[in-house]
């Protein structure tokens, strides 16, 4: 074998070694998907049990390090709290649904790596239920029935304030809380609802009666104004035929309501003749036939 052949074999072997090394190093670089957390454990640094990475990637050293993933997919946990004692010592049922997930804040991600790594989803949900049940009972015990049922926003804020710090201890955070119908054994909440409905109906009836009264007062004042103006009218018969007809209709309508005397006639209104109907006994209404000259 010549020296040239040996040199060529050496070059090929070296090149193959370089390529193999690059492939191996590339295989040890792990990228982290956006819906997961890359947890690198082993010898990662002083005072650290694991290195959590969200986004990007990390090189995993062989023999001294390894890696795994934690899913960021939210978990929906139904909670059916029964017979929880409120501040008024009334037991209520609070059916609810909690949505939780792994927190991506660096310090809380470390808690998740320490306490949730290697657990199945059902095991994590069971752990969350124990935390939520305890804190939900604590929240209900600090509020009255009215605060729980009528001010839902404050109730949800109180739940979040009590539950979320406990979830952070195991690397989770509270995404959403949905409270459905709250009931109680003694029907106290139902009685409150009936009372509120009755008060609303009574208030509406009072408002309607007030408006009807104001409308009647306004109509009466309008009629009085028209009656006070009519005796002062001095019309020109040849030119005010239309106005005469309107006056006839007005008097007829007011006689039906007993707001205008029966004895006064159109001739008196047209010619401003005096009348003393206020001191005479009211007579039945009788239409007066007007002269033909006035109807032209």
From TrEMBL:
Membrane-topology annotation of the record: Single-pass membrane protein
Source species of the chain: Candidatus Magnetoglobus multicellularis str. Araruama
Transmembrane helix is among the record's keywords: yes
Family: Belongs to the band 7/mec-2 family. Flotillin subfamily.
Matching InterPro entries: Band_7, Band_7/SPFH_dom_sf, Flotillin_fam
Domain of life: Bacteria
Keyword entries, A-Z: Cell membrane, Membrane, Transmembrane, Transmembrane helix
GO cellular component, one term: plasma membrane
Domain Band residues, every copy: 27-196
Name used for this protein in its record: Band 7 domain-containing protein
